[in-house]
Amino acid sequence: MANQATPLFRLFKLTITAEQRANFVTAGRHNLVTSIQNEPGTLAMYTLHVAPAGLENRVIEVYRDAASYDQHANSPQFKAFRAVAKDAVTQQAVVNLMPIVLREQAQLLLVSGEPHFVQLTEVTLKPGQAAAYQELITTSGSAATTVQPSRLVVAIGRVVDDPQKWVIFEVYQDKLAYQRYQQTAANRYCQLTSQASIQTAQTTVLSPDTLVNQGGLTLVDRQG
Length: 224
Prior knowledge:
With 224 residues, the protein is of the alpha+beta class.
């Protein structure tokens, strides 16, 4: 991603009605699958829900640049999804993120309803710790920058309008893969060392609806 525009990275928090849950998931799947196949600038899209009811939803999106987002926003599949969302969504919050780490497996990801293990961690740092935290997670060999065959995605960003708040999104092949990764030396070191910078951390395990990306995305911002 060197010498290119900074990717657009966003987290959506959506509350939907139970009556529209099935329509929302179906329209979302069509939107994601069609977009990842037809739009080179749509780099990654993930739709997930908080179990068990599935009324609290999370959407992660990464676009190459603003022009790529505009192309997607004007696509037929997104307009179809938006028509369904208009009736389904009762509350919406958008978190704009500055991407710090974006790492994927090399191959395209295109899955729907498969039992991957996914978690979203929202971190609030202690005052003045943003630079130290960024240096820790972007150091060469850091757990945050590592993808392995069973660790499919790691995406970390700081909230654009509040640099003390960060979001960490991870996708693993399954829960066993996640548990094994937690025991690695790199992860243990990162977890232990980051405690000095973190004020609060809230982790939510998410159930995937549709997960798609182009594959091969690698961005690590060490500028601090």
